[in-house]
Design a protein that fits this description.
Layout lengths: L7 H7 L3 H6 L4 H15 L24 E7 L25 H4 L23 E4 L4 E4 L3 H4 L5 E8 L5 H10 L9 H9 L9 E6 L27 E3 L17 H22 L2 H24 L6 H7 L9 H13 L4 E6 L8 H25 L6 E6 L3 E6 L10 E4 L3 E6 L7 E3 L1 E2 L6 E3 L2 E2 H11 L9 E3 L2 E3 L16
Parallel strand pairs: 1-7, 1-8, 4-12, 4-15, 5-6, 5-7
Antiparallel strand pairs: 2-3, 4-11, 8-11, 9-10, 13-14, 16-17
Helix pairs in contact: 8-9, 10-12, 11-12
């Protein structure tokens, strides 16, 4: 018999020691009255198609996606060089961006001192592909083969114009650090399907070529005000996947087990005395680390993969830490029940040398993304795994710095950028939203970050307005308090 899904009252019970229970006994009648009111608001879904996972809040309705693989391109990919084809701009080469288009937009410090904003049309060729007729750059020939599996959003927009707040906004729904990220919300809501691996894993892939990189750190996969057990667990690309997961020389497994038993007894005593939920998190993490000593080596051993599978991801797949290797690892994690895999890839901050940097970035992701989507599909996992690709903002149509027909740079641009999804209930072959001829302003079907988050949560089985966590006296949620809406056109 499956255990019941955890509710907010269960959360309280897990952190309530016997001593604290009797201390608060005077409130039992009020608590009973509250319990009678809670089910209508917090009831989790039950029945066929629902995962009843111990320790999870549980979805509001049947999820379309049971796993997420989120591929974040750190730095902001240039949409007009990849997916947002603007041939009219060839006639505007080196002409100034009209003020009526820029319309007083805030500038970054990188271009605020420029006397001109010369138009830089894309130097790369585009072609339509698939039944959807999606425009794709010549730099992504493998991606072009699967456009009918993909759901493109060409009208994403944000208020953030600099990397740190923009990445934080995309990951956590707020420009200020300290909030739970999407992966933590997913882990909190759905839990893990594997007792021996975390529900939320993070990989930082290495770019083939690096000219300029943004800082990537644990603030992006923090659990924020959610309990610490829902934070992402970062796997390293070299050496031991997780620091200190292996026993030191001369320490056998039985000694490590006895040590952990002693620590658990001390932590349990502290938990009973103080009732701090983070102490319970520490106990759970020690136990998870012990189990991972067995599960992680099996997970990371890609020698068990067929050569035909490895070939699907490209020639970098056997290179630990490469993007191709990372997305293969993501598929192996999903296969083993990991709920959310976040992969970060730098090298997309193209303030200069688009001609030199963009081709290498596209080579890193092109066949690897194709391999991931098709490998998931072949294994029957694509329908329940949502693959997300995108950055934190787009790039300007005008050049930063010097301009020539063969090379140029692009500054940050929050007003419009392109993302795509595949599988997990996303509508295949969909092209949503339009921008103007300058790829500068949205002219049809805008999608804000909050709308995107609301839609992803919908695919995971959650009503974003009801999926909350009580913190500082407020029902906090990923989409915040400003208006957000689910975009039905993005869902199959």
């Amino acid at each position: 018999m499956n255990p019941p899904i955890r509710t907010p009252l269960d959360e309280l019970g897990l952190n309530l020691t016997r001593r604290r229970f009797f201390e608060r006994g005077s409130h039992l009648l009020g608590g009973a009255a509250l319990a009678a009111l809670l089910p209508e608001r917090f009831a989790a879904a039950t029945g066929p198609g629902f995962d009843r996972v111990p320790g999870a809040v549980g979805p509001h309705f049947a999820p379309r996606a049971k796993h997420v693989i989120y591929l974040h391109m750190v730095g902001g990919p240039p949409q007009q060089d990849m997916f947002d084809h603007k041939p009219v701009m060839n006639d505007w080469y080196d002409k100034d961006l009209p003020e009526s288009i820029r319309n007083g937009q805030r500038l970054t410090t990188m271009t605020s001192g420029q006397k001109r904003f010369p138009i830089a049309p894309s130097k790369f060729k585009f072609a339509r592909h698939g039944e959807s007729g999606m425009w794709v750059t010549e730099l992504l020939p493998w991606t072009a083969k699967m456009v009918d599996e993909m759901c493109f959003i060409r009208s994403m927009h944000t208020e953030a114009i600099n990397h740190e707040p923009a990445i934080t906004y995309m990951q956590t729904g707020n420009q200020i650090t300290g909030r739970p990220c999407l992966g933590s919300w997913t882990s909190y809501g759905l839990g893990s399907l594997n007792h021996d691996l975390p529900a939320f894993v993070v990989l930082v892939a290495r770019s083939t070529k690096v000219e300029q990189a943004q800082a990537i750190g644990a603030r992006l996969w923090s659990s924020g005000y959610l309990p610490g057990e829902y934070a992402g667990v970062s796997f390293r690309s070299g050496g031991d996947p997780i620091l200190y997961i292996n026993n030191p020389p001369g320490v056998p497994a039985d000694v490590r087990r006895k040590t952990l038993d002693g620590l658990q007894a001390l932590n349990q005593r502290t938990l009973e005395q103080i009732g701090d939920p983070e102490t319970r998190t520490r106990i759970a993490q020690y136990e998870m680390a012990f189990r991972m000593q067995t599960s992680v080596p099996d997970l990371t051993n890609i020698a068990t993969e067929a050569e035909s599978t490895l070939a699907l991801y490209g020639d970098q797949v056997k290179n630990p830490g490469s993007f191709a290797n990372s997305v293969l690892m993501a598929r192996r994690m999903v296969e083993r029940g990991v709920r959310f895999v976040q992969i970060y890839l730098n090298h997309w901050d193209t303030h200069a040398n688009v001609a030199g940097r963009l081709p290498s970035g596209c080579r890193d992701i092109d066949q690897a993304c194709y391999g991931l989507v098709n490998d998931l599909k072949a294994r029957g996992l694509l329908d329940e795994t949502l693959v997300i690709w995108g950055g934190e903002f787009g790039r300007t149509v005008y050049s930063q710095g010097g301009l020539s027909r063969d090379n140029y740079g692009r500054d940050h641009h929050p007003r419009c950028f392109t993302m795509w999804m595949a599988g997990g209930g996303a509508r295949p072959g969909q092209i949503h939203g339009e921008t103007d001829d300058f790829s500068y302003n949205i002219v049809k079907d805008p999608v804000h970050i909050r709308d995107f988050h609301a839609t992803v949560l919908q695919l995971l089985g959650f009503d974003h307005e009801r999926f909350t966590y009580r913190h500082l006296g407020l029902d906090q949620r990923l989409t915040g308090v400003e208006p957000a809406r689910v975009i039905p056109e993005l869902m199959a």
